[in-house]
Design brief:
The protein is of the alpha/beta class and about 375 residues long. The protein has 15 helices and eleven strands. It folds into two domains: about 230 residues, TIM Barrel (Alpha-Beta Barrel), CATH 3.20.20; about 110 residues, no CATH class. The structure holds flavin mononucleotide.
Amino acid sequence: MAGNPLRTKLCDMLDIEYPIILAGMGGMGGPVSGPELVAAVSNAGGLGVLGCAFLSPHKVEAMIKKTKSLTDRPFGVDTIIPAEVPQTGTTAEFKAELPSVTTDEPDVIEKLRRELGVPVPSGGKGYLSEMADDTVWSQEAFKEQVEVIIEHRVPVWAVGLGDPAPWTKACHDKGIKVIGVVASVRGARRLVKSGVDIIAASGAEAGGHNSRIGTMVLIPQVVDAVSPVPVIAGGGIGDGRGLVAALALGAVGVWCGTAFLSTSEAIFEDYHKKMILESTEDDTVVSKVITGKQARYLKNRLIAAWDKEGLPTLPMPMQPIAIIPILDGAYEANMADIVPAPAGQITGMIKELKSAKQVVEEMVEGAKRVLAGLSN
Ligand SMILES: Cc1cc2nc3c(=O)[nH]c(=O)nc-3n(C[C@H](O)[C@H](O)[C@H](O)COP(=O)(O)O)c2cc1C
């Protein structure tokens, strides 16, 4: 086989050795892909991306500085800019508005909390309460996050949800590459118009916010729609076979989240890492209950109870704020089957706790073996 198929255009664009990107993994409880995991992936030759969704600008800045102290290699920051969130407002202010948004939601939440056996949160360590001041939900706060990324010249900004158009020129002026994460062909076309450099398309298999379309189907259609803009493939890619398959579908690299959840560096509860090691391909479920938007999680009792009741969800940010009492109580009591754990369908392939370096190395070695087999 001529050349090195794993040395793709993405490697040159981002100055990395392997076309493997650690997807930005944030969440309301704080980052999952924090500085240690990001630096480990970048040091191993891939590109680590910090999960900074919902984090206050000063927290984003602290994470960037910490990452820079752990690696000299390029890395990225992932944020989300949901179109529907209000211009301004804090967690406390949105919480105060809840009764005017819905008349019965607080009662429903309280009833569900009792039925699930979740204790009343003590107000101490909580899933969201303890970091309420560090959690942001407004357009204004998201804008400030981006300004921090630009000011610190982080090599890559990944936009998980929303339109980066107002900032792409400022990023390019500072040499920052912009990745737009999409779930559809239409979304990919829109972000190309906004000036992104790379499209990450994440299929239905993905953990966290995902697509209704499977990765195998989504990637080639996105590749065709946005060519020559490079596409990276996410959703269900966890080893060398997945990497080669993504390249065969026309992608120039992979965007992997779940594969890194059960690593020593991931900021993921130990009980959830263990659940992943024990899970099968059928142990995840898609629900809007946690963020108000469709996302994939390990199956849990909160999601099952919500779906069984057929309860409607509120738009972001009201849904996550409404369920804070359940999340806080469950988190305090270490209720592994209530605290949400975003994860994709490859959980069934993950059988042991590894280091992030090992995950990258095994993916590369596995891909080389597959490619050697194909050329025989
Ligand atoms: C724990 C977890 C948290 C995530 N948080 C975010 C996030 O904050 N922003 C985002 O753009 N995507 C988020 N995602 C989605 C990933 O960026 C990515 O699209 C997905 O993990 C790729 O599919 P895979 O899980 O099958 O590897 C998250 C995924 C997981 C598993």
